[in-house]
């Protein structure tokens, strides 16, 4: 078997075209959605991601608000920028690019954000709303994964999903999304403390690999025909190495490339959260 591709790049492009139509409709009502970003320090990867977010905004007609602070910024400097964006009426929602430089604590920064301006869906209130089933912004990478599977007709209803990795942006929250009645999957969260990872993986209809361990998921761990989503980002000689061994493509039914899979979907879902926030505020 050679797996079919879960093409995140093409799917994200289609979503962006749909969002551009919704942004145009908002503009007709005098509403211009605006995304703010807070970038602290000079990590080239983080800068690349933030620049990508503003490029995406320009493509769909969302306004950009960019705030940058040097690596020497204090906790108070970062929190002051958050206060500014909370008060800025042009800013529909914003993100603080993670990770923050060493010595800065992201949690008080996230808690200070106005939850109604949380574009990442990572604010404690957003995660609480997701737990309680209250409408609000959803975490971008998990939402991107659900949307990527949905648009490729990969069944989640009744599926056994195994998530590998317990990080905040994916592993911690994706189970909340996938076990909603609308998705109706059964989710097992595995991590470095899991005793027999292969045992869990071999039962999975869908695997979400978000451990950040190069080629952790081997072909012999995968059930024939399973859908495998590679979220891991490690780098070797300037190239991305995912969590999924290339041989998995011979066993799986569906596989997301990396790059070109979940990453572009994460970006598209950020735009989606901004448009939804603007629509919510306009009563659409
Ligand atoms: N505040 C946040 N910080 C971080 C998040 C996040 O969702 N919110 N996620 C990651 C970084 N990230 C977005 O910020 C992100 C990562 C990767 C991609 C992407 O499109 N990747 C490309 C490949 C890019 C490359 O060659 O390096 C792909 O997968 O095709 C988009 C967004 C951590 N921080």
TrEMBL record:
Residues 6-120 form the Tetrahydrofolate dehydrogenase/cyclohydrolase catalytic domain. Pfam families: THF_DHG_CYH (PF00763), THF_DHG_CYH_C (PF02882). The keyword Methyltransferase does not apply. Pathway: One-carbon metabolism; tetrahydrofolate interconversion. The keyword Ribonucleoprotein does not apply. InterPro entries: Aminoacid_DH-like_N_sf, NAD(P)-bd_dom_sf, THF_DH/CycHdrlase, THF_DH/CycHdrlase_cat_dom, THF_DH/CycHdrlase_NAD-bd_dom. Its EC number is 1.5.1.5, 3.5.4.9. Residues 139-281 form the Tetrahydrofolate dehydrogenase/cyclohydrolase NAD(P)-binding domain. It catalyses: (6R)-5,10-methylene-5,6,7,8-tetrahydrofolate + NADP(+) = (6R)-5,10-methenyltetrahydrofolate + NADPH; (6R)-5,10-methenyltetrahydrofolate + H2O = (6R)-10-formyltetrahydrofolate + H(+). SUPFAM superfamilies: Aminoacid dehydrogenase-like, N-terminal domain (SSF53223), NAD(P)-binding Rossmann-fold domains (SSF51735). Keywords: Amino-acid biosynthesis, Histidine biosynthesis, Hydrolase, Methionine biosynthesis, Multifunctional enzyme, NADP, One-carbon metabolism, Oxidoreductase, Purine biosynthesis. NADP(+) binds at residues 165-167, 233. It comes from the Bacteria. Belongs to the tetrahydrofolate dehydrogenase/cyclohydrolase family. NCBIfam families: PRK14193.1. Catalyzes the oxidation of 5,10-methylenetetrahydrofolate to 5,10-methenyltetrahydrofolate and then the hydrolysis of 5,10-methenyltetrahydrofolate to 10-formyltetrahydrofolate. Homodimer. This is Bifunctional protein FolD. It comes from Kitasatospora terrestris. The lineage of its organism: Bacteria, Bacillati, Actinomycetota, Actinomycetes, Kitasatosporales. The gene is folD.
């Amino acid at each position: 078997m050679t797996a079919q591709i879960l093409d995140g790049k093409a799917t994200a492009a289609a979503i962006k075209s749909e969002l551009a139509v919704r942004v145009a409709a908002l503009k007709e009502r005098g509403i211009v959605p605006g995304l703010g970003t807070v970038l602290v320090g000079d990590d080239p990867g983080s800068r690349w991601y933030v620049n990508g977010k503003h490029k995406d905004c320009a493509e769909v007609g969302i306004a950009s608000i960019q705030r940058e602070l040097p690596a020497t910024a204090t906790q108070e400097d970062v929190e002051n920028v958050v206060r500014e964006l909370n008060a800025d009426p042009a800013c529909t929602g914003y993100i603080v690019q993670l990770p923050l430089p060493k010595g800065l604590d992201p949690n008080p920064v996230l808690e200070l954000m106005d939850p109604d301006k949380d574009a990442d869906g990572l604010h404690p209130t957003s995660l609480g709303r997701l737990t309680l089933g209250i409408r609000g912004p959803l975490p971008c990478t998990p939402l991107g994964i659900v949307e990527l599977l949905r648009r490729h007709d990969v069944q989640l209803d009744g599926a056994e999903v195994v998530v590998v990795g317990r990080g905040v942006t994916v592993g911690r929250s994706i189970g909340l999304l996938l076990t909603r009645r609308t998705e109706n999957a059964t989710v097992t969260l595995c991590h470095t403390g899991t005793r027999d990872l292969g045992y869990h993986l071999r039962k999975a209809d869908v695997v979400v690999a978000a451990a950040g361990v190069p080629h952790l998921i081997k072909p012999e761990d995968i059930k024939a025909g399973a859908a495998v989503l590679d979220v891991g980002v490690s780098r070797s000689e300037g190239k991305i190495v995912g969590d999924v061994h290339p041989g998995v493509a011979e066993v799986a039914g569906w596989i997301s490339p990396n790059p070109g899979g979940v990453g572009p979907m994460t970006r598209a879902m950020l735009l989606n959260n901004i448009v939804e926030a603007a629509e919510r505020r306009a009563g659409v």
